[in-house]
Write a structure and sequence with these properties.
The structure holds 2 protein chains of 2 kinds. By secondary structure, chain A is α+β, with helices and mostly antiparallel strands. Chain A has helices at residues 7-26, 42-50, 69-81, 87-103, 106-117, 231-243, 247-250, 253-265, 277-305, 312-335, 354-365, 372-384; strands spanning 123-126, 142-146, 149-160, 166-172, 183-189, 195-199, 209-220, 224-225, 267-268, 271-272. Helices cover 46% and strands 15% of the residues of chain A. The longest helix of chain A is centred in the C-terminal third of the chain and has 29 residues, at 277-305. By secondary structure, chain B is an alpha+beta fold. Chain B is built from 11 helices and 10 strands. In chain B, a hairpin with a 2-residue loop joins strand 2 and strand 3 (147-158). The chains are: A alpha+beta, B alpha+beta.
């Protein structure tokens, strides 16, 4: 048992912090909450790539650094802590690249992995459909075999994100077998004819999610990932990677720092807000919940470094973490009182309007990447052995 | 970072669990609730033979030379088994403080006897304010010749009625409420002037009112330094808090295990109730709480063992574990339904002990304030 980082890990963390602080100083980005998935900066992504920090723990054979999951966690923790614009490389690094490593053909690995690592390939995730959310396996988008091609017809929704080079797609290749057994995975170039992308606007005013229409899109067979009709079984570990990260816990961390600073610096009746017992209690309670959440994230990373693919553990982590983020954003709005309703660049707006914005974004945390309801089913069934219906 | 126990630690845990499952069944726990002393001498003898009392004492004082982290594992199993008796009092509140703050003579005098189960000790700190801060210490110790004379009342003193020695936290300084002027005395529990009343408690443990009426304690029995005892008291309370979290972790884990077993076995509407989504969600929430308690507790225990600063980590562990207890226990009762509401079922042991433990050595409110201070609010 050991609850500290090694000297190398501490040095690495400092290296990442120094890099991020320098980029802030240079004006490459301004720290903000809730941006790991939505803030695009090709400049920032290329700089991160130049440090070798995309695909940090991919095998060296394919251009990665071959480092540990713990190192990746330290890197990503600092990225979200500093509210850095990581959208253009996040999905490739976190999950699609991992799928390619696990199931891709040699050609796919040599074609796509270097691009991901260099920050030259961004991915959107084409999973959900209007009639297939939590029941993803019921998806209908069809990939029909036609010689050397698959013809894709159908519609995806909640496809994150906009302006990406590729869509990771899961589609039905065999409609005549039970729903889980007829799905396959593809990497689809977004510039192919027949792909139409229409942004959705969230209640937070963000346009990162999209509807994507596939109308007779011809995708060459070489872009199918892994085995035909094994897509459901292949996607399982990708979803585990999607859920396991510390961005689920600390995505709005800059808001936490901002509200603490605000409470310390703002006076009411001659004393700082942070001296009022109800505010002290709320902020301390958030800190306790954050510290426990960080331990969950580190625990999952240690399991991954031991070669374990965390399914119920990642699910537990995400369900807990997103509940924390929601707690933080709603507490921040409440601590601000009447000022908590001022948004964006309004006159009198405190902390740049981070609180109400994050509050609105927070309604999605417990839905995207696996709803809390599904995740808790997984924890109960896989983690505790409770029976399915 | 490594969250797993070592092989030796796993063995210690398995051995402790098997021993306590066998030798500390709930029938014994129930008996001891009404037993005057509150523990089984036979069981105590066997624990001594296993080396448990002196586990974390150096070998030269009759111990096994193992660590506080090893002790943490033992304490978790004791919490899981609801072990009745003065183990916590004698070792955590008596022995380890003497090991850390005692003179060589004091260590020689007390530690071997504790390791052999020959003497019981405890700590008398809380008073009528029922808090663990220096301002609440009003029990006075006045110098008279070669001794100090202690006057006042201590409350919630565990196992005082069977103790051989009481570590009494008293005010020797002239100023009230300050951190300076506090001294720890090792008082002979059979001294003239000491009287005990065993309180009736939710936890069915033996918490006592201890009245000191002109109790004389020789100067040599000061533990640590005259007037400068508060730092040692804080340290003793910190360690006791972590130890209590270890017991609570065992309590929480057992509630989770019992609940999941029950959910798999209990059939209603032609299916195990554990197949209903809400029961699954309850159990998922409970597992999250138990893991949080486990990780935060062991992090605190590890840091304390390594001699690293751990005030914040201990505060996080106790605040979390106390809150987690309430959530886990409430859901445990809901899942068990009526059967968990009867004395015949084991759940009540955990309900009663856990709720009492949540208040002991500092509750969630107290430790949340510690976290607030650590945050610089």
């Amino acid at each position: 048992m050991d609850f500290k980082f090694t000297e190398e890990q501490e040095k690495f963390r400092q290296e990442v912090r120094d890099f991020l602080e320098e980029e802030i100083r240079l004006g490459t980005f301004v720290p903000k909450p809730d941006v790991w998935m939505t803030a695009h900066s090709l400049e920032f992504t290329r700089k991160v790539a130049a440090k070798g920090w995309i695909g940090l723990n991919y095998p060296k054979e394919y251009g990665g650094q071959g480092r540990s999951w713990m190192d990746r966690l330290i890197l990503t923790e600092e990225m979200v802590r500093y509210g850095a614009p990581t959208a253009l490389h996040w999905f490739g690094d976190r999950q699609v690249g991992r799928s390619i490593l696990a199931y891709g053909s040699e050609e796919q690995k040599r074609e796509l992995l270097p691009k991901i690592i260099k920050g030259e390939a961004s991915f959107a995730l084409g999973m959900s459909e209007p009639e297939a959310g939590s029941d993803l396996a019921s998806l209908k988008t069809r990939a029909k075999e036609d010689g050397d091609y698959f013809i894709i017809d159908g519609q995806k929704v909640w496809t994150t994100g906009r302006d990406r080079n590729y869509i990771y797609l899961i589609a039905r290749t065999d409609p005549n077998v039970p729903k889980h057994k007829g799905l396959s995975e593809f990497v689809v170039d977004t510039t192919l004819p027949g792909v139409t992308i229409r942004p959705l606007v969230t209640i937070a005013g963000e346009e990162e999610f999209n509807e994507v229409f596939f109308d007779g899109v011809r995708v060459h067979k070489k872009w199918m990932l892994g085995e035909k009709n094994r897509g459901w079984y292949q996607i399982a570990s990708q979803l585990d990677f999607e859920r396991a990260g510390i961005e689920r816990l600390m995505g709005n961390y800059p808001l936490f720092e901002a509200i603490i600073k605000f409470a310390k610096e703002t006076k009411r009746d001659g004393k700082a807000l942070s001296k009022e017992s109800s505010i002290r209690e709320r902020l301390a309670q958030l800190r306790i919940e954050l510290d426990v959440g960080r331990m969950f994230a580190y625990w999952v990373a240690t399991l991954m470094d031991k070669g374990h693919v965390p399914n119920w553990e990642a699910a537990m982590c995400k369900a807990y973490s997103t509940a924390f983020e929601k707690h933080l954003s709603s507490a921040a709005v409440e601590i601000l009182g009447l000022y908590g309703q001022l948004v964006s660049d309004s006159k009198y707006v405190p902390i740049e309007g981070m609180a109400p914005h994050s509050y609105l974004v927070s309604k999605g945390y417990s839905l995207q990447g696996g709803t809390t309801e599904i995740l808790k089913n997984i924890v109960a069934q896989r983690g505790l052995g409770l029976p399915r219906e | 970072m490594n969250f797993a126990l070592s092989e030796e630690q796993e063995m210690l845990r398995t051995m402790a669990r098997d021993f306590l499952t066998n030798k500390c069944p709930k029938t014994l726990v129930k008996e001891m609730e009404i037993d005057e002393k509150g523990y089984s001498p036979q069981l105590w003898k066997e624990m001594v033979e296993l080396g448990w009392m002196g586990l974390a004492f150096p070998e030269k004082y009759g111990g096994a030379g193992m660590t506080f982290l090893d002790m943490a594992i033992l304490l978790e199993e004791m919490g899981r088994a609801c072990l009745p008796g003065p183990f916590f009092s004698s070792v955590i509140l008596g022995g380890l403080p003497i090991l850390e703050f005692g003179s060589e003579e004091q260590k020689q005098e007390y530690l071997l006897k504790i390791a052999k189960g020959e003497k019981n000790l405890t700590l008398a700190i809380a008073e009528s304010d029922a808090r663990y801060d220096a301002a609440s210490i009003a029990v006075k110790a006045t110098a008279e010749g070669n001794a100090y004379v202690i006057n006042g009342t201590k409350l919630f003193v565990p196992d005082a009625h069977i103790a051989d020695y009481l570590l009494c936290v008293a005010r020797t300084g002239k100023q009230a409420k300050t951190e300076s002027g506090i001294t720890i005395f090792i008082a002979d529990a059979k001294s003239p002037g000491i009287s005990y009343t065993v309180l009736k408690t939710l936890g069915r443990d033996k918490l006592c009112e201890v009245v000191f009426n002109r109790v004389k304690v020789p100067k040599e029995n000061i533990l640590g330094q005259l007037d400068k005892g508060w730092d040692a008291v804080k340290r003793i309370i910190e360690r006791a808090t972590v130890a209590k979290c270890c017991e609570m972790t065992g309590n929480l884990q057992q509630m989770l295990d019992m609940t999941v077993s029950y959910a798999k076995e209990r059939i209603q509407f032609e299916r195990p109730i554990g197949s209903f989504q809400i029961i699954q969600h309850y159990c998922s929430d409970m597992l999250t709480d138990v893991q949080g308690a486990r990780f935060s507790t062991y992090q605190a225990a590890w840091r304390l063992n390594e001699g690293l600063p751990c005030t914040k980590e201990i505060a996080v562990a106790k605040a979390w574990t106390g809150q987690a207890f309430e959530r886990v226990n409430a859901l445990s009762h809901q899942v068990h339904g009526a059967i968990g509401f009867t004395m015949d079922h084991d759940l009540h042991f955990y309900t009663m002990r856990g709720k009492a433990a949540a208040a002991t050595f500092g509750d969630a409110d107290f430790y949340r304030e510690v976290v607030a201070q650590e945050m610089g609010l």
